[in-house]
Backbone:
């Protein structure tokens, strides 16, 4: 099926690449994670996935990033267990983390563009306390639909660097204002990716450029006084055996080129946005 036939635009098509990588990883003997929902979704979208060129490096980056974020999400939820919080997955794409990690004590929200949510609703069975929001994360008003429950975990995987930096800053500030005390996990790219007008090899031909990057993830605190940096981790610091030849060179570039996972906490603050 063509991109037009799939109903997915250029940026939304990036969700197919990530789905393909996770499904393939789940099928590997001794893979980094088991993801039957991703495998089933990939089987249902086999025609659409045929339009996504294969490339080992981006797939490795996707699955290592997934493993790190899964670990951090499980750690955070374990610490909050029984306190009635929830999860907000921003720019959910075809993410299957809800199914992969199991139910939580609160509501798990997924938000993405209407065309993506329409595909999600065809692929994934409705589940109580698993809510799909068909909205752009940049639209006004949707944040107020979600109660600022405590604790709340927000996830933005493979999202923020596709936004203009000003839009990313404004979104994070809006989230911090509405969800004081919440934790947010997201990923950033190194500054070498800034200004790129084409994605890396797998996304050849898709108009999905990267817009900004950070060499020092602690500088995220300068975006808003409510942001408290907690930790970060480079994808190149995990799963050395999966990167193949040249891994030492990759690690040396992790500040300027690498994908880093970042965790921040939203401080309570009276600063007006």
Residues:
């Amino acid at each position: 099926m063509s991109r037009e036939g799939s109903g997915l635009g250029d940026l939304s098509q990036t969700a197919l690449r990530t789905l393909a990588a996770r499904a393939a990883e789940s099928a590997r003997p001794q893979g980094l994670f088991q993801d039957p929902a991703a495998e089933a979704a990939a089987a249902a979208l086999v025609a659409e996935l045929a339009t996504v060129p294969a490339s080992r490096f981006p797939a490795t980056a996707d699955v290592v990033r997934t493993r790190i974020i899964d670990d951090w999400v499980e750690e955070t939820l374990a610490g909050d267990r029984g306190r009635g919080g929830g999860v907000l997955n921003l720019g959910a794409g075809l993410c299957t983390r809800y199914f992969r990690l199991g139910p939580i004590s609160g509501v798990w929200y997924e938000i993405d563009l209407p065309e993506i949510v329409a595909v999600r609703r065809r692929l994934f069975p409705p589940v109580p306390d698993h809510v799909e929001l068909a909205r752009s994360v940049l639209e006004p008003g949707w944040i107020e639909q979600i109660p600022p429950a405590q604790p709340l975990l927000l996830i933005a995987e493979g999202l923020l660097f596709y936004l203009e930096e000003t839009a990313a800053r404004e979104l994070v500030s809006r989230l911090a204002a509405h969800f004081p005390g919440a934790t947010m996990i997201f990923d950033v790219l190194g500054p070498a990716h800034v200004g790129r007008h084409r994605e890396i090899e797998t996304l050849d031909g898709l108009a999905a450029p990267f817009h900004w990057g950070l060499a020092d993830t602690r500088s995220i605190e300068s975006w808003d006084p409510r942001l408290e940096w907690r930790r970060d981790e480079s994808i190149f610091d995990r799963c050395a055996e999966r990167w193949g030849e040249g891994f030492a060179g990759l690690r040396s570039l992790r500040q300027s080129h690498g994908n880093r996972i970042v965790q921040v906490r939203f401080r309570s603050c009276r600063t007006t946005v």
